[in-house]
Amino acid sequence: MYSILKAQGVLPLVTQINIETAKIVLQSAADAGIKIIEFAARADDAKEVFEQMIAFKNTNNLDIRIAVGSILSVIDAETYHKLGADCIVCPHTDLEIGNYCLKNNIYWIPGAATLNEILHANKLGADLVKLFPADKIGGPGYVKAIRAPFPNLRIMPTGGVTLEESNLKSWFKSGVVCVGIGSNLFSKEMLLNLNYEQSLNAFKNLIEVVEKTRN
């Protein structure tokens, strides 16, 4: 999973979507060449939507993996793993969730803010850590500073990552493995009436700008 995220350079995130929109997002993402996407399980019907996403993916043989984000407990981690999640993403670092993921061979991306929290997540078995909320705790300059004594840190900033070339370039220049991007890719308003062409173009543009800014 790490190699996929590193190659892709970005983990696109969607949340608060209905089943039809979820199908559009999955199909267009796969058609654009996206290999992994995150579905943040924040809505009351998130489990039902995710079940349909897995069914749609399998029925149409889509070459895409689905990470499930906003996982707050080991119960949720187990639930979504059994439903077919390829990866568990958390806003925090939780020992129970980490142990479950390692025991069941499911990729785990915990969230952290401080250097000590990142190192703690590494000790618990995470080889990639989500820096959250990345823009509020110092941005690219913060990443550059903490990687000075620990150059091997594998970080994915989430929060404040935009599609602006200057923004993305500053993150990649700081040494991050990949970036997480959600509302700056699909706004709430856009998701309300999203069609296939809009979604496909959004993913194609995302891939293009990421490749341009990190090379």
Automatic annotation (TrEMBL):
<dbReference type="Pfam" id="PF01081">
    <property type="entry name" value="Aldolase"/>
</dbReference>
<comment type="pathway">
    <text>Carbohydrate acid metabolism.</text>
</comment>
<dbReference type="InterPro" id="IPR000887">
    <property type="entry name" value="Aldlse_KDPG_KHG"/>
</dbReference>
<dbReference type="InterPro" id="IPR031338">
    <property type="entry name" value="KDPG/KHG_AS_2"/>
</dbReference>
<dbReference type="InterPro" id="IPR013785">
    <property type="entry name" value="Aldolase_TIM"/>
</dbReference>
<protein>
    <submittedName>
        <fullName>2-dehydro-3-deoxyphosphogluconate aldolase / (4S)-4-hydroxy-2-oxoglutarate aldolase</fullName>
    </submittedName>
</protein>
<keyword id="KW-0456">Lyase</keyword>
<dbReference type="GO" id="GO:0016829">
    <property type="term" value="F:lyase activity"/>
</dbReference>
<keyword id="KW-0119">Carbohydrate metabolism</keyword>
<comment type="subunit">
    <text>Homotrimer.</text>
</comment>
<comment type="similarity">
    <text>Belongs to the KHG/KDPG aldolase family.</text>
</comment>
